[in-house]
Amino acid sequence: MEDWARDDDQDDAADADEIANEFDTSATKDALPPVSSCKEVADVSAPTIEQQKPPLPVMPPIWAESRQEVCESFDYFRSYQGGVYSSKDIVKGYLLGGSPANRDIFHCEGKLIISHGGGKAESILDYRIGAARFQQAQDQEATDKSVRALLKSYTDKRPLVLLADDKYALFPFDLGASACTYVVLGLYWISHAWAEYQPASNGCGRVVRWKFAFQWCEGQGNPWWASSKSDDVNMLPDPSAPGQDTSSPHAVVNAACNKCSQKSPVIYSQGWMCLNPSCTSFWSLGGQEPEQLVYDTAFLRPIATVFKNLPELRPVKLIETTDSITTSYAFSKGWHCEKCGRLSSRFKWEHWECSNCHLTHRVPGRLRIAKEFWHQRPSAEFLHSHVGKQSGLRRHCHSLALLPHLHATLAGIIARRPEPFELGDGGGFTHYLTFILPHERGRIHLILGTPLANKKADEIFRQYQEQADGGELLLRRYPLRLVIRGTFLTNYFSQNSGEPYQYVGGTGNTVPFDKAPSSVCGALALIKERSRLALQKDIPFNEILSAAYMEKQKMSFHSDSEQGLGPVVASLSLGSAAFMHFRARATPKEVKHSSSNVLTLILRHGDVLIMEGDGIQQHYEHTVIPMNFRIAATARCIVTS
Fold it and tell me: 628: burial class by Cβ within 10 Å (0-12, 13-18, 19+)?
């Protein structure tokens, strides 16, 4: 058997705006089917009243408080929104949660779990602006992405990892009492997959749903929550094993439909049904749809199946790095605490720390220099900037006074020709670019760094790294203000100095300037100097946000439009190059964001970007996507009254 656990997929972290409305879906009030044991077969469609669950007998070996912790720390499940995580049509993980559908069961202390999956449930599509829309439940099809991947895992007999959250009604213990929101159950394989009808509140009153029977993979011991009695189970022989007799009276019977010729197993004791949803005899017993169903005894018996090369699910922590670089993607991921089992996102720059027992882990590394990123070629199409096709760009040759009247009246971005710029203080000359936004919404200036002009930036870059690694600069990933289950942290590390800035960290995590490290003060001084030279006036910046990005981290689309912010925002770039995209903000008349960027800038080491004018934040939002390790210092004017 091939080593299925090998993962060649490297997923980028999800944007915060993609998952803001993800987790808080109201649970349906469907009647719960009874939880059957190994020695009984119940009517799995009869309603029952859920009993209060006992506490966990032991703590799970792998658990988490938030979904982000799971996705960042556990390679077998990185899906922020769906219940199925797959890569290249191979299912890695499957999340059990919420109220079960009819005939979902947790059987034999969890050695057999039957669940519906694959999406297309009824849902509410919500937007930050505009009215919410209700989406009715739809039929699942074998070609749907999640269903297709699950069916392929079934056909290939590939093990996968099952997880459960604290809202999974069929799990026999109270996860919430132990502060466990998500737990890893273990490795399972799909022994059966079939389609059936489920009731729904759509026009047809029903939908096609795919069901999957997950069986515990032998060879990993008993489930961690199960009693020792779970070993006392009569198991069916594996019908796919060489030399096995598939005609055993206790084996699951398969029969072919006389209309579609497709084989289906006998799943329910009431009799055989065709389970091909495209057949006219689908889900029919004696010409009628069944109402009360009981699982067949043979169908519920676990199948003795041995898998080779089952992986160790506990994530392995990084011990060292061959190149001494500790800002790569691997170092931005979370970790598994070997002491208490908690999965934790990396929320401190200087080391990993367990969010439960506060155990720490640190890997020493070296400082990085700007010269390491000189080889980067961000774009083959442009050097510094690109104005989108829909922006109405008009090139400006020398000055605004020379523009034709027609060009001046068009509602497009005007890109001025790069102009020479003397830095003074031994910094030599550089160039700066100016982009004039339509309707007098503001101007965006990009002051380019040069090797001669970047001496101060080089020193600031070194200080930032030294002071962050030593803990003098407290770079942290702070919670975003999103209405979701569990904490959701920013996708970068930051620390605010000066006046409090509400967007990240809140007022309680701001360091006054007289206690800020020299890296922060040096960055602020350089921003003030370049801004004064470009704008020909002093800008009273009284706040600076330092943000550090490891590889593959980024800042999602946002605008600096908080109440009390001044009209000028300036930022110093250090380290790797980064793309900065601008797009029009959504309005009540146009709910969805425009997919096209109106302006893209490439920010390199030593560059200073200035956004001048309130209209920029009111009408546009921006994102920053670094190519590698990057530090940015962004200064603002915050009204203190």
Answer: buried
Please list the residues that pair with 568 across neighbouring strands: 612
CA distance 348 to 192: 44
DSSP structure class, residue 386:
E
Which residue type, as a one-letter code, is found at position 608? V
Check residue 252 and give its pLDDT.
86
Task: Work out the angle between the directed axes of helices 518-535 and 455-469 (0-180°, nearest 10).
Answer: 150
Q: Which residues of 430-456 are buried (b: 16+ CB within 10 A; e: fewer)?
A: bebbbbbbbeebbbbbbbbbbeebbeb
**Amino acid occupying residue 232:** D
DSSP string, 509-562: GEEPGGGS-HHHHHHHHHHHHHHHHHHTS-----EEEEEEE-TT--EEEE----
Q: How far apart are CA 432 and CA 419, in angstroms?
A: 6
The whole-number pLDDT of residue 19 equals: 52
Residue for token pair 């080491």:
605
Q: Which residues of the chain have pLDDT under 70?
A: 1-50, 120-135, 228-250, 390-411, 482-484, 503-506, 587-595, 641
How are beta strands 510-511 and 385-387 bridged, if at all? Answer: unpaired
DSSP string, 251-319: SPPEEE-TTT--EEE--BTT---B--TTSTTBT-BTTB---S-BB-HHHHSPEE-B-SSPPP-SPPPP-
* CA-closest candidate to residue 276, choices 259, 298, 297, 296: 259
Structural tokens at position 443: 């101007």
Separation between Cα atoms, residue 233 and residue 249, nearest integer Å: 17
- Virtual torsion, Cα 141, 142, 146, 152, nearest 10 deg: 170
Q: Coil, helix or strand for 618?
A: helix
Nearest CA-CA partner of 144 in 89, 93, 98, 198: 89
d(CA 63, CA 42): 31
Contact of 345 with 334, CB cutoff 8 Å: yes
Q: Which helix (H) or strand (E) holds 573?
A: strand 565-575
pLDDT in tens, 569-619: 999 999 999 999 999 987 655 555 556 899 999 999 999 999 999 999 999
Secondary structure element (H or E) that encloses residue 459, with its range = helix 455-469
Among 83, 77, 60, 319, residue whose Cα is nearest residue 183: 60
The answer to whether 307 touches 217, Cβ cutoff 8 Å, is: yes
Distance of CA 391 to the CA centre of its chain: 31
Pairing of strands 493-498, 510-511: parallel
User: Which amino acid is it at 456?
Assistant: K
- Closest C-alpha to 631, from 408, 463, 516: 463
Tell me if 443 sits within 8 A of 435, measured CB to CB: yes
The structure's pTM equals 0.86
Residues 6+ apart with CB under 8 A from 377: none
Q: Is 66 helix (H, G, I), strand (E, B) or coil?
A: coil
> Whole-angstrom Cα distance, residue 533 to residue 432?
11
Residue spans of beta strands (DSSP E) within 144-253: 160-165, 182-199, 206-216, 236-237
Nearest of 72, 39, 269, 32 to residue 168 by alpha carbon: 32
* 606 closest CA partner among 398, 452, 390: 452
Enter the DSSP assignment of 69: H
Q: Could you tell me the two tokens for 526?
A: 């350089």
